[in-house]
Amino acid sequence: MIGGMDIATIRLHNLKTLIERHRQRPEQARLPRHGQLTRFATSAAANPRYLGHLLARRKNIGDMTARDLETKLGLAFGWMDQVHQTAPAAGGRGDDSLDSLSPDEAQLLRSVLKLFRRDPLAVQGALLAMAAG
């Protein structure tokens, strides 16, 4: 248990957070709510019916599913297992908030993600080396 929550609850909360963030994207916000889970599932290369079972707690998000979602959504390994700040802290953005990125920041992250998906180890190594230096 982490912070009084078991891993199943943390992962479910994180899945709901990811879906809500997807709904709040400008290109999604103007679309009808009907079908938003399917659109999220498409972006995560996941089965919408399976995601529905997870959200309804008919199934728990297991290790393989958590890692698969992290990979497909460009999240760090273990992200689904951690408790994250869901709202920006007073006076600024939260550390993991993507909701209020500038257009330049969003474009940079899309570019990095595109490169990461091509060669994760090389990009991760380069970014870590840059951050350390």
Percent strand equals under 5%
Pattern of helices and strands? HHHHHHH
As a whole number of angstroms, the C-alpha radius of gyration is: 16 Å
Q: How many structural domains does the protein architecture include?
A: 2
| Oligomeric assembly | single chain
Identify the overall geometry. Answer: globular
Folded structure, characterized:
- This protein is mainly α and 133 residues long.
- It folds into 2 domains: 7-98, no CATH class; 101-133, no CATH class.
- The protein contains 7 helices and no strands.
- The protein has helices spanning 7-24, 26-29, 36-43, 48-55, 63-73, 103-118, 120-132.
- Helix 3 crosses helix 4 (48-55) and helix 6 packs across helix 7.
- The chain is globular.
- Residues 87-96 have low confidence and may be disordered.
Question: Can you summarize this structure?
Answer:
This protein has helices at 7-24, 26-29, 36-43, 48-55, 63-73, 103-118, 120-132. With 133 residues, the protein is mainly alpha-helical. Helix 6 (103-118) crosses helix 7 (120-132).
